[in-house]
Amino acid sequence: MKAIQVYGYGDPEVMKYEEIQDLHPKGHQILVEIKAIGVNPVETYIRAGMYPFQTQFPFTLGFDAAGVVKEVGTEVTKVKIGDRVYTDGTLTGSYAAETLCDEHQIFPLPQRISFEQGAAIGIPFTTAYYALFYKAQVTADEIVLVHGASGGVGTAVIQLANNAGLNVFATAGSKEGIKLIQTQGAHEVFDHSQKGYEDAILKATGDRGANVIIEMLANINLAKDLKILAKKGRIIVVGCRGEVTINPRDLMRTNGAIHGIVIFNTTREEKEAIHAKLYGGLASGMINPVIGKEFALEKVAEAHRYIMSTKAYGKIILVP
Ligand code: NAP
Questions:
Q1: pTM for the full model?
Q2: Contact between residue 22 and residue 98 where contact means Cβ atoms under 8 Å apart
C-alpha cells in the first residue's frame, strides 16, 4: 500500500510517497482503509524536528483520518468490517492508504458526515471541546473570544460554543476568513490583522472583557489577551509558536488565569467521553466540520507548506 514515509527531520521534502508492506490487525487492532486524512499544524512541527516526539525513521506521520473498516483483529468488538469510522490517533500513522489503530482510537462516523469531515474531527474537535468545557469550564452566560477562529480548531470552537448557547466573539485575518467565521455563527467578528482590533473587542464587551479566550497564537497575543480579559476570566493557550513577554499585573487585575493545554495529555477516558459528546452533535447536524483545501496524498509537501503559510479557511485534507 502507499504511504508517506518520513526519513529524517527537516523541510517538507523529507516526506516520501512510497509503496510499503501491507498491514494486518491482531487482537484489539483494526485496519482502516483511509478515504481522507486531516493535516494538523503539529505534524509540520514533528516533521521539522521541533516537537517532542519519539520515533524511529522512517515513519508515517498523522493522527486524523476517516474511512472504512477493512479488517479486524480477533478481539475487536467495537466495529465490524465495512463500518464508516474516523480515527483519533493511530498505531502506524494516518498519512497512508491504510492505517492500523487500536480499538480506543476508532469512532463511528455518522452517515451524514463525509469522510473529509470525518478527517477533521480528531485533534481539532477534541482540542476545542477540552479547551472550552474541561479547562475553561465555560458557563452559558459568558462571552467566549476565539482568537484565531478561521482554521480547524477555531471553527470547531465556534460550533461547540454556539451549540452551548454562548456569546461567541471570533477573529480571522483575511476577508474569506471573516466571512467564514460569520457563517459559522460568531456573533461579533474582528480582523486580527488590523491595528487596534483588540480595542474594538473590549468595546463590544461593554468594556467588561471576554470571560474566556481560546488563544491560537499566544506568542503574538497573550499580552493583548490580558488587557481584554473579564474579571475571573480564563485564557486557554491552544497555539503558541515562540516566546512572549507579559506583565503579570494585568493578570492580577482580573483575578484571571492562563491555562496551557496539549491534547495529547488527555486521558483515554477523557477522550472517549469527548467523542461520545461529539457523536450526538455530528449525527444531529449541530456539528459540521468545515473543509478548506484538499491535496492528493502524494502532494503532502505542498499541503505542509500551505498550512503554515496561507490564511486559514477550515481544515486542510489529504486524499489517498
Ligand atoms: P490552522 O487551521 O492552521 O489555523 C490557524 C489559525 O490561527 C487561523 O484561524 C489563523 O487565522 C490564526 N491566526 C494566525 N495569525 C493569528 C494572529 N495573529 N492572531 C490570532 N490568530 C491567528 O490551525 P489549527 O489546526 O486551527 O490550530 C491552531 C493552533 O493551535 C496551531 O498553532 C496548532 O499548532 C495549535 N493546536 C494546538 C493543540 C493543542 O493540543 N494545544 C491542538 C490543535 C492545534 P488567519 O489565517 O485567518 O489569520
A1: 0.98
A2: yes
